[in-house]
Specification:
- The longest helix has 15 residues.
- This protein has 5 helices and 8 strands; from the N terminus they run ββαβαββααβββα.
- It starts with a strand and ends with a helix.
- By secondary structure, it is α/β, with parallel strands linked by helices.
- The protein has one domain: 3-Layer(aba) Sandwich (Rossmann fold), CATH 3.40.50.300.
- Helix content is 30%, strand content 28%.
C-alpha cells in the first residue's frame, strides 16, 4: 500500500469482492455534502466500487450503472440520499448543466460523479477523487486523491479503516 503523501493513496484490489469491501469502508465514513469523483475506463470497476460505497453508507438499494439514465439515487432508512451521476454519454457542458448538478451539490446528500471530466467547471474544487485502473480480469488499481481539508481527513480515516495505518 504505497502512501504517496497525506493527500493521496494508491493500492490494489485483487477481486471484485475486495473492490466492494474497499467501497464499503469508504461509504461508512461519508457525510452529507460529501462529493466524490470516479475516473477510469469502461470496465474499470466504478459501479462495483459504488455498490460497496452504498452498502457501507447504509443503503440496501441495488446499485446499477447510471450510464443510460444519467442519475441514480440511493436512499438510507433515515431518508438521506446518495446521488450517483454518470457523465459518460454527455458531450457538452450544456448537457451536463441540464442534469441539475448544482441542486444536487447544494443539497444534503452525498454526490458521486463518474466521468468528472464531462463536468469541467461544474464540480467543487474540494472533493475526493478516485481513479480506477484495469490491470486484468480481477485486479484493479485504485488511487484516491483528496482536495481540501474535509477530504484529507476522510482519506486519513479511510486509510486507517481499510489498512490499519
Amino acid at each position: 500500500m504505497p502512501i504517496l503523501d497525506q493527500r493521496s493513496l494508491d493500492f490494489w484490489s485483487h477481486s471484485p469482492e475486495q473492490t466492494v469491501r474497499f467501497g464499503a469502508r469508504l461509504g461508512e465514513l461519508l457525510a452529507p455534502g460529501d462529493v466524490l469523483t470516479l475516473s477510469g475506463e469502461l470496465g474499470a470497476g466504478k459501479t462495483t466500487f459504488v455498490s460497496g460505497l452504498c452498502r457501507g453508507w447504509g443503503s440496501a438499494d441495488q446499485v446499477t450503472s447510471p450510464t443510460f439514465v444519467l442519475v441514480n439515487v440511493y436512499r438510507r432508512p433515515d431518508g438521506q440520499s446518495l446521488w450517483h451521476v454518470d457523465g459518460y454519454r454527455l458531450t457538452t457542458r450544456a448537457e451536463a448543466q441540464t442534469l441539475g448538478l448544482d441542486d444536487l451539490l447544494a443539497g444534503q446528500g452525498v454526490v458521486v460523479v463518474e466521468w468528472p471530466e464531462r463536468f469541467a467547471g461544474l464540480l467543487p474544487g474540494e472533493r475526493l477523487n478516485l481513479t480506477l485502473r484495469w490491470a486484468d480480469h480481477t485486479r484493479r488499481g485504485l488511487r484516491l486523491d483528496a482536495a481540501g481539508p474535509r477530504y484529507e481527513t476522510l482519506l486519513s480515516d479511510f486509510r486507517l479503516a481499510a489498512f490499519g495505518s
